[in-house]
C-alpha cells in the first residue's frame, strides 16, 4: 500500500501531503462514460468486477492521485439485505418498498448472510489490488447507518427527511432497530473489504446535517464509532476515515477511535483544526465548485496549506466532484496540491 498515504493517516512525518478525489471516476471522466455505456446501467457496473476495477483505476492513471477509491455504491448494502433497488434517470436511487414497520425490517436479511452476498465488491477489490501500483493506496467505503437508513425508510433521496424524523421522534425503538441491523451488516461488510485488500476505510454520513445536534450522537455518530472501533480492534493497522457532512456546530462533541476526520466544504478548516486537529488527521475541505476555476482552486490550496502548515492534512474535496468539471481542472488541483504541499 502507499506508505505516504497511510503514514499521513496515522499522523507520521511524510514527504508531502497525499491527494485523492472525493467520489470515484464519476461522470466528469469521458473514459468512465464509455465503460458505463458498455455496462448498460449504474447497478450493472457496480456488479461487474472487471468494469468496476477499470473505472476505479481511471482517476489514478488520469489524474495522478495518491489513492484510488473503490468503485461501488453505498446502497448495495440495503440492496443485498433484500431491498429491490433501481437507479432512475433524473430521480436517482429508488427503493420501491421502503421499510415502514417492524415486519418490513424482519423480512430483510442481516449479519453474515447479507455481507456474504456482496461478493462482487470483494472480487473488485482483489482485481484492483492486482493492478494498482504499490505506492498507491486503495480506499474502501460504506455509508453510515443513518445515511443508509434514510434511503431505506424514505425510499429515495429527500430534502426534508420527514418520514425518517417522524420515526425518530414517534418510534425511536423502530429506528434504532433498523440502525442496529444495518450496523451489524456494515461491520462485517467492511471487515470483508479489508480481508479482500482494502488499505483504508472511509465511513460517509452524507446526511448527518439532517439530525439536530441533540440527537446526532444517539442516532448516527454512536453507530459510526461502533463500526470504527470494531475495525480498529481487529485491524489496528488499517486507517479509518470518518466523514459526517454538515456538522460544524458540534465538532466539539466528536469522539471515537479512528484516524482521520473528513472536513466538508461548509466547515471552516481553522475551526476543525482548533476542535479536532490535536486528535485526528484532517482531510478535505475544498468547495468542489472551485474546480470550475483554476484560479479559485489554487487560492483554496494555498489557504489550506497555510492553515494546516503545523497540522496534519490530506488534500481532498469537501464533498463529491461534480459531473461537468473540466478534467484539466481536476488534474490541476492534484498537481498543485502535490507541488505546494511538497514545498512545506
Summarize the main sheet. Answer: 7 strands, parallel
Secondary structure: number of strands: 9
CATH topology: TIM Barrel
CATH class membership: Alpha Beta
The percentage of residues in β strands lies in: 5-15%
List the helices and strands and how they pair.
Blueprint: H1 3-9, H2 30-39, H3 42-47, H4 49-63, E1 67-69, H5 76-80, E2 85-88, E3 92-95, H6 102-106, H7 111-116, H8 119-131, E4 137-143, H9 145-154, H10 162-170, H11 172-196, E5 200-205, H12 213-234, E6 240-244, E7 260-263, H13 269-276, E8 281-284, H14 294-307, E9 313-314, H15 327-342
Parallel strand pairs: 1-4, 4-5, 5-6, 6-7, 7-8, 8-9
Antiparallel strand pairs: 2-3
Structure write-up:
This protein has 344 residues and is α/β, with parallel strands linked by helices. The chain contains 15 helices and nine strands. It has one domain (3-74, 104-144, 189-342): TIM Barrel (Alpha-Beta Barrel), CATH 3.20.20. The strands form two sheets. Strands 1-4-5-6-7-8-9 form a seven-stranded parallel beta sheet. Strands 2-3 form a two-stranded antiparallel sheet. Helix 14 (294-307) links the parallel strand 8 (281-284) and strand 9 (313-314). Helix 10 packs across helix 11 (172-196) and helix 11 (172-196) packs parallel to helix 12 (213-234). The radius of gyration is 19 Å and the shape is globular. The mean pLDDT is 93.
